[in-house]
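<tokenise_the_fold>
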Amino acid sequence: MVPIPIVRDVERLRFHYELLDALLLPGSADIEPRRYGAVARSDCNLQVMPELDEVELKLASWAIADGLPTLGICRGIQVLNVACGGTLWQDLHIEGVVTESHDREPRDLLAHGLDIEPDSLLARTLGQTHIRVNSLHHQAIRDLGPSLRASGCSSDGLIEGIELPAHRFLLGIQCHPEELAGKEQWADRLFEALVRAGSNRTQ
């Protein structure tokens, strides 16, 4: 595993990127709304890191162009969507998208269901078409990036699983499978598939 520092120099960032066999985009701060053509709402309690947006959106764009195996988790699925021209809800409750919170502790609580398209890469990877997931987010995909496919939806209709059909292995999932690894087989399979895709790329 190679952690990538937040750097402003594009050549230095590309140097770190070239060391990768696969890319994992984890959860973290909210993406600045200007990145997807929106104005930040003052009532949505946004916690942003502009320098992280710059780095991760660049990494995502390179990974998409190069076919680098990629997995986006929570913020990571949102980064992939924005990199592909999609938009986000700034706050699901405040904008009236859901009636029940999607930010629920403890971190390994199986809070709701996720229905997965049977013919999708996500279904093949997890070996299931319906799973129970944890839920630790206040934002989510609003408009899906044009090149992406919605391959998983929450029980209340949010897009919480995506993939890029033209890409060998690019998946995004809104929940936090790292909190469920060792407890839920599907979570283990997800990380195993990323490692396998990265290994196959170098052979």
About this structure: The longest strand covers residues 149-154. Residues 20-189 form a domain with the Rossmann fold fold (CATH 3.40.50.880).
